[in-house]
Each structure stands twice: as C-alpha cells, then as structure tokens.
Amino acid sequence: MTWLVTGGAGYIGAHVVRALLDAELRAVVIDDLSSGHERFVPDDVPFVRGSILDGGLLLDVLDEHRITGVIHVAGFKYAGVSVQRPLHTYEQNVTGTAVLLGAMQERGVDRMVFSSSAAVYGTPDVDLVTEDTPKSPESPYGESKLIGEWLLRDQEVASGLRHTSLRYFNVVGSGDPSVYDTSPHNLFPLVFEALVAGRTPRINGDDYPTPDGTAVRDYLHVADLAISHVAAARRLDAGESVERAYNLGGGEGISVGQIMSTVREVTGIEFEPDIGPRRAGDPARIVASGELAARDLEWRMRHSLREMVESAWVARTAAH
After folding, report:
1. Alpha carbon distances (Å) from 50 to 53, 78, 86, 127, 146
2. Is 141 marked active-site?
3. Percent of the chain beyond pLDDT 70?
4. Orientation of helix 96-107 relative to helix 55-64, angle to 10°
5. Which sequence spans correspond to the domains of the chain?
6. What is the pLDDT of residues 11-47, one digit of tens each?
7. Where do transmembrane segments lie in this chain (predicted)?
8. Rounded distance, CA 218 to CA 196, Å?
9. 187-217+250-319: what CATH class?
10. Catalytic residue among 78, 141, 208, 219
11. Burial level of 186, CB count in 10 A (0-12/13-18/19+)?
C-alpha cells in the first residue's frame, strides 16, 4: 500500500510521513512549499513539488506511484488570517480538496484520511467537546474544514469513498529534532522566538474563569497525532469500519499559564509573560474528548507537557 501525503513537507505532514515509515507503509509527498520545507521530507521518500489545485499533476502522481490512499494534510491553516483572506482560504482548502477528490475518483483511489480541525466547532458551550457537539465555525478556515468534511461525505455516496476526518486543536512538540513548527502564528514558536531574541513573550488575557486565569486548551504532541493518522489509514486499508470523524483530544486541557511555567523550567530562561487583553471571541476553555479515537485509532496522550515543550525546544535549537 502506498499513501500520498498532501502537505507532507509541513510540520504535521512530515511527522505523518515518518509514522507511515515506522509502520512499514510506503509514502509519497506532494507539497507546494508555501509553508513546508523540502528538508523535512526523508531522503528515501519521493517528493513532488506542486499544488493540489493542479489536477493534471495529481493524476500523474497517482499513476506514477500507484497510490492506494491519501492522507490529506495540505491546507491554509491560519484561522485568524483566513478572516482577511477568505477567498484564498476557500481556494486552498475547498477547491483544492475538490480537485484532489476528483483525481482520486478518476483513478479509482478510494480511501482518504482528512486532516480536519476543531475549528469546525467554533466556541462550543460545553465543558467537553464530542464528535456530536454542534458545528458552528467562526472563521473561513473553520468553515473550509467543515466543507471539506461535507465533500468527503458526498463522495462516499457518489463513488464509495472510504474516509474519516480527524479534528484536533493545538499541535506542539517534535518527534524528530529535524522537524519543528515554523508557523508565525502558533504559541510555541512565538514564545521561543521571543525568548531567543531577548524579548518577553506575550499572552492574551489572565482573567478567565479558569484555575490560573489563563485560557485552557488541548495541546497534543505531534508524534501522537501522526500515529493516529496512520492507524486510520491502516483501518481503511483493512476495510475495517471507521467513524466519519474523530476528535483527537486530551480530555483535560492545559492552560497557557502552565505552558509558560514549563517553558521557564525547560529553557532555564526566567521571564514573566506580558499580559495583553483577551482576544475577541476566545473562550475560557475548549477541551475535546478523545474517547472514540482511543477506541479505534490508537489515540492516547503519550507525552507529558514537559516532554512536549522539551522536544519542541530541542528541535528549535537544533535547527538554529
């Protein structure tokens, strides 16, 4: 079996590729390098530079490498920026997914693991998000991911596509020191870059109704996430049943304040974060249940918060 990983040169996608190799499955990567890095792709994995909007290229890749399934990680993932760039977001995440599904149908590739997002839920009014929690995305990014799930659902009816979508919140850490988060918008790289530059990291709000006043979220180690993508792929390969969607959540959550304390311990750099105002629309707590994924997709939190921070810091410092 050979799996095409779209966005496989990115932070999450590159970890998925490594998890496939660890499971002795073949991987091929397509990535336009808009946010990924070719150096993140292992030397023995075929790499194609190109866009999933290029249907002809996709057909060539599916043919040349005899692709049997797709793990679709490629996408424009910045929720905040998507508000200013809605058309770009929809083109990359909706049109791109439709073009990819069209090429798969034309070549008879009938299985997909879709990297969705907990952004499909918006700001849920529940303590613990489940797969049945109402969907109410609040950004073009969240909307585009929900539409992607609808496209898969409709292709299941039209062509027999076998699929599942994985929804998750904040992905952190590193499973390989050569692969690290380079996003200019994510918490860990923002904090690390500030510390390395001698600046004080800034957090948004310390007056939430939480134990330490800072927002609580799921933070998930990227290597744990990758394992469940591969577990989903293997279930599809084996013809085993899967849910249409799974939350990859920790069930308890981690506060921003806890992360700042752990960063101090790991880096040895003493600091007290600057406190900015709450961001509009940021809920005090969003935490998801990973119960279904634990049942079917080998999902569990294998790494402590300290291990998440430590692995991310080692990868960041190794890269520089």
Report:
1. 8, 20, 22, 41, 24
2. yes
3. 99
4. 40
5. 2-172+219-248, 187-217+250-319
6. 999 999 999 999 999 999 999 999 999 999 999 999 9
7. none
8. 25
9. alpha beta
10. 141
11. middle
